[in-house]
Automatic annotation (TrEMBL):
The keyword Transcription regulation applies. Transmembrane segments: none annotated. Keywords: DNA-binding, Transcription, Transcription regulation. GO terms for molecular function: DNA-binding transcription factor activity; transcription cis-regulatory region binding. Residues 33-52 bind DNA. Residues 10-70 form the HTH tetR-type domain. This is Transcriptional regulator. It comes from the Bacteria. InterPro entries: Homeodomain-like_sf, HTH-type_TetR-like_transc_reg, HTH_TetR, KstR2_TetR_C, Tet_transcr_reg_TetR-rel_C_sf. Pfam families: TetR_C_24 (PF17932), TetR_N (PF00440).
Amino acid sequence: MARTQGSHSGITGPRVREVALKLFAQHGYAAVSMRQIAREVGVQVGAIYNYTPDKQALLFSLLEGHMEELLAAWEAEPRPEAPQDRLEVFVRFHIRFNLARPQAIFISYMELRNLEPAHFAVIETLRKRYEAALEEILRDGQATGAFSVPDTRLASYALIAMLTGVNTWYREGGRLSIAEVADIYWDMVRKAVAAG
């Protein structure tokens, strides 16, 4: 297939990532070929390698980019002093951020198994940074007596799994708005960790 007239790296590079994300989410990493990605982008298959060394590097780039975006967005959130308020900020942030990126969330969980060990280690380190942010909030709440959880690390894993689970059922235009979902989940989280 001939190169799309007027295509260049500023447009084609991001398009390769966008198409790969969509195809990996729809069909799974293993089932998608570089030829399919090239066809959907509108370039010859050889041209794809101007934008990524191979399919593994493309998957890693998508997962790493997602985690870096998540961490940067979290760092930009307000940091109230009270642990209860910080936990509420975390809950609402996590739901809002994830629901805006359903394909990225899907491949971030479903395609980890397809990463080579060195790539997996990088993503795991980034994930642990995010989990640690929540665990720190829970520990601070334990210290002030605001929260009562038997194990802050386990609680952080459980809360993140619960919050991320919204992506499996939420559909835009459904019965509840994102804000209403966040209100309900915040109420459940607050009750789950509340002291006494």
